[in-house]
Amino acid sequence: MKKTLLFLLSVASFIGVYAQPVIHGYDVNPVPGETIEIKSKNNQSLNLGANGANQAWDFSNLSQTQGYINTITSAYSSPVGTPGAFSFPDANLRIQYNPSDTIYYYYNADSSSYKYLGYGDTSGGAIGWVTNPRSVFRYPLTYNTHYIDTINEIFTAPSSNDTETTHGIIDRNVVAYGSLTLPSGTFNNVLKITSTTTDTTYMQQDIYIDLTIETYWLYPGIHTPLLYSESDFGQIFHPNGSITNTGGTSFFYATGTPTAVNEIVAKKYKVTCFPNPAQNTVNLGFELKQPGDVVVKVMAANGTVVLKQENHYGQSGATTLPLNINQLAAGIYFADLNISGVHINQQFIKN
């Protein structure tokens, strides 16, 4: 499993059962101090199922998979003051994928993307960093989103005086959405994303050419892919002309049934959206514990902003903001409330 491509995804957009999912970048930041548990299995591939709209993927029998399934608990923390953090000044997240690991991975999460910056080994001092931050994902993500990113990485190991460079291309496509059933339950409005990575690594003597095919199933509100599959095919070319074939398959799935972050925050601020469906006006109700800024915008199902932001300074207590939606076409929309930096999405239907 390529740990550099694993990530924690926090999404706070609540989407109705029949709506096309949209995942926004401002909701991606994992919470330092959080731990996530997954179950992984090496040397076994999955039937990835169909692509397209409104698919249904059933992986309810994964827990009955024959062979050893490893349980991994990953920990997330702030990189400030940690070993190796000086090598990644732009990082705002550090991930340890297994408690026994001495390797930490560094990321930067902002409103438009989730970037992988590199890793550091606290035991031997080895460091690998990207010379151009690699976008693990770019936002918003929705059905048929497609982008290509380049790979330029450098690895150094002071103990062995070893240096390696890697160059390549990542091609990612959001190929489907629908419902996903795991041993922990069924999740609606899941995005399925495929990723093809081709890269070449120049080692001290050998050249390593690699092809990796990955599939992610992402669900709004869960901080890790619900399901992930990887197939890796590589060849190492040696100076004497011989070739070593490498590669394998693996998958992991999230355990438990986490509660969507958006639902928790919406309850905290007592957010409501009425009437729903609406014809000419939709009202957004919320309650502030103290006065603060509220910014509202309305987005279509594909993430496009269709109404300009409305700035409002809210007093403490219950507040209702009416939005004129008379000019909108009939369909499903999302009202995004930014309450003092906290985003809450509410779905509504325009008749």
Automatic annotation (TrEMBL):
Domain of life: Bacteria
Keyword Disulfide bond tagged: no
Keyword Translocase: no
Signal sequence region: 1-19
Pfam families, A to Z: Por_Secre_tail
Location of the Secretion system C-terminal sorting domain: 274-342
Keywords: Signal
InterPro entries listed in its UniProt record: Secre_tail
Name the UniProt record assigns to this protein: Secretion system C-terminal sorting domain-containing protein
Species of the source: Taibaiella soli
Phylogenetic classification of the source organism: Bacteria, Pseudomonadati, Bacteroidota, Chitinophagia, Chitinophagales
